[in-house]
Amino acid sequence: ALREAVGLVPQDAVLFNATLRYNVQYGRPEADDEEVRKAIAAASLGPLIESLPEGLDTMVGERGLKLSGGEKQRVAVARAILRRPRLLLCDEATAALDTATEAAVSASLKRAGRGRTVLLVAHRLSTVMHCDRIYVLERGRVVESGTHDELVHKPGGTYRAMWALQAEGLSDLEAEQEEKMLRALKEGHFADGDGADAATAAAETSTS
User: Fold this and answer.
1) pLDDT above 80 (res 155)
2) What is the value of pTM for the model shown?
3) Closest to 27 measured CA to CA, from 107, 153, 179, 38
4) Whole-number Å distance between alpha carbons of 8 and 83
5) Residue 21: helix, strand or coil by DSSP?
6) What's the mean pLDDT when you consider all of the chain?
7) Does 1 map to a domain?
8) CA 13 to chain centre
9) How far is C-alpha 89 from the geometric centre of its chain's CA atoms?
10) Quick check: is 7 in a domain?
11) Are 159 and 202 in contact (CB under 8 A)?
12) Which residue of 86, 107, 175, 179 is surrounded by the most CB atoms within 10 Å?
C-alpha cells in the first residue's frame, strides 16, 4: 500500500506523553528491539539516550516538552525510519531549528536516506543544497531544476537570487556556522555511506 511505503518527518514532530521507546516505536509497533536500535542509530539519537538514566524508558512529557527541538526532530526521523519506507518525505523538517541544530538533524536525514528516495520540502536552502536534484517552484510552477552548483551559478536564476538573499540575512556568526555546515554536508562528514537520492522543490521565495 502507498501509505506503508512512505515515511514522514514533519516540521513540528508530534510526540506523546510517553516514553522515548513508545514514541519511536509508534512508527511500527511490531518492530523488535534490534530494529528500534538501528532506527535510533540512523537518527543519531544514541548519544541522547545513553545520557539519560532511564534510557529509552525516559518519559518525554506532553508533546515532548522535555526534549529540545533538535531532539524531537530526531525522534521523528527514527520513527519514520522504523517504518522502513521506500520514500522518506521531509516537510520543512529543519525550518524551526537554529543553524547548529539544523546541521545535526540534516546529518540524520542524510544517513536515513541511504537506500531510499528522499523528498525534501524546505524554505532554508542550506537544507537542500546536497540533494541530487532540486526543483524550484514559483507561483506553483517549476521554473528551474538542477543541482545546487548548477542553480547557484545560473545567471538571473531564481534559486541564485534566493541563495544570495538568504546569505545576506545571516549574521557573521550564523554565516560562519552555515559555511561549516554546508562544507561538512557536501564532504559527507556527517554521515557514513553515500547519502540519499533526493528531489527537492522550491516555492515562491524558497525551496519547498
Assistant:
1) yes
2) 0.70
3) 38
4) 10
5) helix
6) 79
7) no
8) 12
9) 9
10) no
11) yes
12) 107
User: Can you read off the three cell numbers belonging to residue 105?
Assistant: 538533524
Listed residues 50, 69, 84: the one ending a domain: 84
Task: Return the SS3 of 157.
Answer: coil
Q: Are residues 102 and 38 in the same domain?
A: no
> Residue range 155-171: average pLDDT?
83
Residues 6+ positions from 194 with CB-CB distance below 8 Å: 114, 188
Phi, psi angle pair for 85, to nearest 5°: -80, 150
Rounded-to-integer distance, Cα 81 and Cα 65, Å = 22
Beta strands in 95-165 (DSSP E): 117-121, 133-138, 141-146
Grid cell 523528498 is found at: 119
Q: Containing H/E element for 23?
A: helix 20-25
Indicate if 131 and 208 belong to the same structural domain: yes
